[in-house]
Amino acid sequence: MDRWIEEHIDVVLDHYATLRRTEHADPRPPELIKKLMEPTVRQLVSSLRGESQWGGFIEELVTRVLAAKQATAASVSEAARVMYQAVQLAWRDAPEVPHEQWKLAVCEQMLLASEHVAFSLDMHLGARIRERNDALAAQERLQQEVIDAQQAAIRELSTPIIPLLDRIIVMPIVGSVDTRRARDILRALLAGIREHRAQVVILDVTGVAVIDTSVANHLTKAIGAARLKGARPIVTGLSDAAAETIVEMGIDWSGIETLSDLQTGLGLALSLVGFELRRREGVAEARDARLS
């Protein structure tokens, strides 16, 4: 059988080119179609002789066309099927050919080809899925890094340290205070005391809408940590409602300097480090004269 196909390869290729052009609307010239298909027909002959691996050839072919994006696995499988039809047409007018016996042998090769097409396609799709998953994972990691950076920037902005004159720092606290933010406040406060060698720390809570047990405990820890670092804490901006809440909860702030507003707290802080605020009467009188 292999010798017969080899001897009649031109007939097989003619049938193949005709089938491609008539049944599959292949626009390429017949000679080009035959030239491209001849290696595959010769590979079939070699495989029928047991000299090579037909499945390996098809597998390599599918891998190559998929990688080059020149065709699809289905097109390779279709080409093998059309080649099988072409071989059958070449046998049709050959009385010496044992049709059924040879047909079975070639069918086995075509089945093997289909199996290897499916295997190659599965491997290719598996690789593409892994690539896609890796790309998605990388994108998710990048997005998470951006989110983490944004959150870090927001946390830094939400716990600012403002140095005033020498040895005085102010930390305005605005918004709600949860466990994570309380940790950031504590770390920023200690870092500010160390960096500016602060002796007085003003914690202004005017912007904290609600002071409950949790917030009060977090502030108490921050105050205690500031004392351990050698700084004197002053809490400013406590509302009447916040003061009542702290008393009702039984939290002892008797040893903590608390003032109604930031302005009063700044005056106390300056006096604690040896500065004194005095009104310049002459300037004040001149200003009053301009206004009158």
From TrEMBL:
Lineage top rank: taxon: Bacteria
Q: What is the lineage of its organism?
A: Bacteria, Pseudomonadati, Myxococcota, Polyangia, Polyangiales
Q: Does the keyword Methyltransferase apply?
A: no
Protein name listed in UniProt: RsbR, positive regulator of sigma-B
The STAS domain is annotated at 158-273
Q: Which PROSITE patterns match?
A: STAS
Ranges in a coiled coil: none
Arranged from A to Z, the UniProt key words for this protein are:
Phosphoprotein
SUPFAM superfamilies linked to this entry? SpoIIaa-like
